[in-house]
Design a protein that fits this description.
With 226 residues, the chain is α/β, with parallel strands linked by helices. It has nine helices and ten strands. It has a single domain, classed as Rossmann fold (3-Layer(aba) Sandwich), CATH 3.40.50.850. Helices cover 36% and strands 21% of the residues. Strand 1 and strand 2 form a beta hairpin. The protein is globular, with a radius of gyration of 17 Å. It comes from Dactylosporangium fulvum. This is Cysteine hydrolase.
């Protein structure tokens, strides 16, 4: 077992039953010229997460931690994209429309894939999800059960949308979640701050919050044994 200082209090986890979940670090969201930027967002707010997440991935791989990546996107015929999601925003920039990196948020397109800096290593599962939460209409729950995972270390984008939705889903399913503040990002700084506060509020109503160096330090005994 390992313990680290977090908000609202110490977080204890067993590396053998803990998984790192990296949410939606995709080109369409993260890269200049991608879908996120075409909507007027400042992608630098998300790109600041790349370096700490890369360091975190290296440490987790060295420690033998389970690592799972997710991608938000849809089938080419949009049969898994409900009208409530599809009919949002400028028609020329909606899901499925031609974008600077291929059809926007369509599986198999260049923009849908994970950025090179955080590319999954061989053998690391990638969960494709049609919604904001990583458990909805995916096999994530079954995968975690098969791996014996009981705690999740959560990173990715965006803090207030896909990260928050996934943490809430995980909390309802009995997983203990640690969100790493420097490895999650929002296009809106005020949403980033408030989103993190909401997770740890009321005694950790959805989980715990810490930064990645603190978590990596807690992994050191595991690293020394590998």
């Amino acid at each position: 077992m390992a313990t680290l200082e977090a908000l609202p209090g110490p977080f204890t986890f067993d590396p053998a039953t803990t998984a790192l979940l990296v949410i939606d670090m995709q080109r369409d969201f993260m890269e200049p010229g991608g879908f996120g930027e075409t909507l007027g967002n400042d992608v630098s707010q998300l790109r600041r997460t790349i370096a700490p997440t890369a360091a975190l991935l290296a440490a987790c791989r060295a420690a033998g931690l389970t690592i799972i990546h997710t991608r938000e996107g849809h089938l080419p015929d949009l049969s898994d994209c409900p009208p409530a999601k599809l009919n949002r925003g400028d028609p020329g920039m909606r899901i499925g429309a031609p974008g600077p990196m291929g059809r926007i948020l369509i599986r198999g397109e260049y923009g849908h894939d994970i950025i090179d800096e955080l590319a999954p290593a061989p053998g690391e599962p990638v969960v494709d999800k049609p919604g904001k939460g990583a458990f909805y209409a995916t096999g994530l729950g079954e995968l975690l059960t098969s791996l014996g995972v009981r705690s999740l270390v959560v990173t990715g984008v965006t803090t207030e949308v896909c990260v928050h939705t996934t943490v809430r889903e995980a909390n309802d399913r009995g997983y203990e979640c640690l969100v790493l503040s420097d490895c999650v990002g929002s296009y809106f700084p005020e949403f980033q701050e408030t989103g993190l506060k909401m997770i740890a509020a009321q005694g950790g109503i959805f989980g715990w919050v810490a930064d990645s160096p603190t978590f990596i330090a807690a992994l050191q005994p595991t690293l020394q044994r590998t």
